[in-house]
Specification:
Elements (H helix, E strand, L loop, with lengths): L7 H8 L7 H19 L6 E9 L4 E3 L5 E9 L2 E2 L10 E4 L3 E5 L7 E11 L8 H17 L7 E5 L2 E4 L7 H7 L9
Antiparallel strand pairs: 1-7, 2-6, 3-4, 3-7, 5-6, 8-9
Helix pairs in contact: 2-3, 3-4
């Protein structure tokens, strides 16, 4: 896959595994968990560069689909180049972690696919919130242990003693850690 939320050594430390016996299996589970987390979040998390076209809104601001935005390399509206500005009273654009703002009297002209933005967004290993790593460690640990009870939803231990297993794709604790980072559905 490539990037993961927790390294193999972090996963092994979390699970208290000291031998390399299951390293390949743990790598496969870790890749799968990363993909499941990204699907749940409905957005990319790892830093990447984007060059996209968006519909103009007629407003002075526009949310970008991937965040946190760390750099904007280019902005065109109706093929006209818009330069960055360092002043909120200047002419051009400024940005924060989710939004580009036009300064002065400019607006993102309302039209289809008339705004072109080149930008960088996402987290690096050094800026990633701990929520992602902890969520991944919980989920990888669960799936690693679950392989010993494939298909079981519960198990009788003795008279009046039953153990039930969580069978959702992501554990509730994982969803809880990720929910605040999830991309909201468009209104």
């Amino acid at each position: 896959m490539g990037e993961v939320f927790a390294s193999l050594s972090e996963v092994k430390s979390w699970l208290r595994i000291t031998v390399a016996t299951d390293d390949t299996l743990l790598g496969v589970i870790n890749d799968s968990v990363t993909a499941a987390i990204l699907t749940f979040l409905s957005r990319d998390i790892f830093q990447a560069t984007y060059d996209i076209r968006l519909n103009g809104t007629g407003q002075r601001r526009m949310k970008l689909p991937q965040y946190p935005v760390t750099a904007v390399s280019s902005l065109k509206i109706d093929e006209g180049v818009i330069a960055p500005t360092l002043s909120s009273t200047g002419i051009g654009f400024m940005f924060d972690e989710k939004t580009i703002y036009l300064m002065g009297d400019s607006v993102f002209t309302r039209a289809f696919q008339n705004v072109q933005v080149g930008y960088t967004a996402g987290y690096t290993a050094g800026t990633m919130p701990d929520d992602f790593k902890l969520a991944a460690l919980h989920q990888v640990g669960h799936e690693y242990r679950m392989r010993e009870r494939i298909g079981e939803q519960s198990k009788m231990l003795g008279p009046g003693q039953t153990v039930s297993y969580i069978i959702d794709e992501l554990l509730p604790v994982v969803k809880g850690k990720l929910e605040r980072h999830r991309k909201a559905a468009p209104v």
